[in-house]
Design a protein that fits this description.
By secondary structure, the protein is an alpha/beta fold. Helices cover about 45% and strands about 15% of the residues. The protein has 2 domains: about 180 residues, D-Maltodextrin-Binding Protein, domain 2 (3-Layer(aba) Sandwich), CATH 3.40.190.10; about 150 residues, 3-Layer(aba) Sandwich (D-Maltodextrin-Binding Protein, domain 2), CATH 3.40.190. It contains 14 helices and 10 strands. Strands 1, 2, 3, 4, 5, 6, 7, 8, 9 and 10 form a 10-stranded mixed sheet that branches. Helix 7 crosses helix 14. The longest helix has 20 residues.
């Protein structure tokens, strides 16, 4: 080993100890994080992270992580469409013997992959991850996609702004409403309202003749452009048009429907120490702030995030992961109802 290599290993170990202290880890967890940092840095493979955000967004997250752990390499591969994740993991493991180290998906996909024995378990709490972020040992909650009302402030007067669910189905929005083609918001609301009431509300919603969009990003953009005046969309997808100066405003809902976003470690990982380290970091206030700052998707369970503040006083509307089958059954029925509004653009 050269003097340079020895020096770099000492720097990595020292940085890991400082990081553990800085992130609130103490005792055994601090030692474990320090050991993981050294093992991850010595691994020839980067931590490969399958996730759906734009590359330039995640580069900011990785850069922040590398301020703490400069010798641990993380490679992001954008995988859009979480529903296809399970098939991809199976195909890659069978074809090449390995796959991404970490995968970020919704609850249904994470639980399905675990049922197929594709995920590794870990003692996340021993690594300092709060118990509320890791309801099971094979995944960690890192963020949430939260539904909000999005309006064009040039076309909706302050006195006409909707205050919440009671105003969504007002006839005045007929022909002025936009919607994601998938009925996720009403499906999640079925957990709070009951399926019968949620379906009745959705049927009234369809009478508004909402324009359907295949993605929530162009939906938010078209609110900003004035093609539609109002929409039910995601908090995070409204951020780009707002950053561009579009007349877009978000209005929180209560109950607040959402999809918790989980990150899991695969059995096909080639840098397991690095995967544990990076995911543990994402579950810290620093990691959560970095991810939310880059993607506008924050952790509703992490105090200090904008997403936490958005929903902290609201009732959360989300089917628990163990009721995924019921969610999917309701989702299929509701999608057909919403789809009757017309073809998606």
């Amino acid at each position: 080993m050269t003097i340079t290599q020895t020096f770099r290993k000492l720097i990595t170990a020292g940085a890991a100890l400082v990081t553990a202290a800085g992130l609130g880890a103490t005792g055994a967890s601090a030692d474990m994080l320090s050991d993981l940092a050294k093992e991850a840095a010595a691994n020839e493979h980067p931590v490969v992270w399958y996730e759906s955000s734009q590359e330039d967004q995640i580069e900011k997250v990785i850069a922040k992580f590398n301020e703490r752990y400069p010798d641990v390499k993380v490679q992001h591969l954008r995988v859009a469409g979480g529903n296809k994740m399970t098939g991809r993991i199976i195909q890659e493991v069978q074809g090449q013997g390995y796959t991404g180290d970490l995968v970020t998906t919704g609850a249904a996909q994470a639980w399905e992959m675990n049922d197929r024995s594709l995920l590794q378990s870990a003692d996340w709490q021993a690594l300092g991850v709060p118990k509320k972020l890791t309801p099971v040992d094979f995944t960690v909650a890192i963020a949430a996609s939260v539904y909000v009302i999005i309006i064009n402030t040039d076309r909706v007067k302050p006195a006409d702004e909707p205050k919440g669910w009671d105003d969504i189905n007002d006839p005045k929005w007929k022909g002025r409403m936009g919607s994601w083609v998938r009925a996720g918001a009403h499906t999640q609301m079925a957990k709070v309202w009951g399926v019968e009431k949620a379906q009745a509300e959705l049927e009234e919603y369809v009478k508004l003749q909402p324009l359907l969009f295949k993605s929530t990003f162009p939906l938010a953009q078209q609110v900003g452009a004035g093609e539609v005046d109002i929409a039910i969309g995601f908090f995070h997808t409204a951020q780009p048009p707002m950053d561009a100066g579009a007349p877009v405003k978000r209005i929180a809902l209560d109950p607040a429907p959402m999809h918790t976003i989980y990150t899991s470690m695969t059995k096909g990982a080639r840098n397991t120490p690095g995967a544990k380290l990076f995911l543990s970091w994402l579950a810290t206030p620093e990691g959560a702030a970095a991810y939310e700052g880059a993607t506008s998707r924050g952790n509703h369970l992490m105090e200090g995030t904008k997403t936490y503040d958005l929903v902290k006083n609201a009732e959360v509307a989300e089917w628990p992961a163990e009721e995924t089958d019921k969610y999917q059954e309701t989702f299929a029925v509701f999608n057909k109802i919403l789809g009757s509004a017309g073809a998606a653009r």
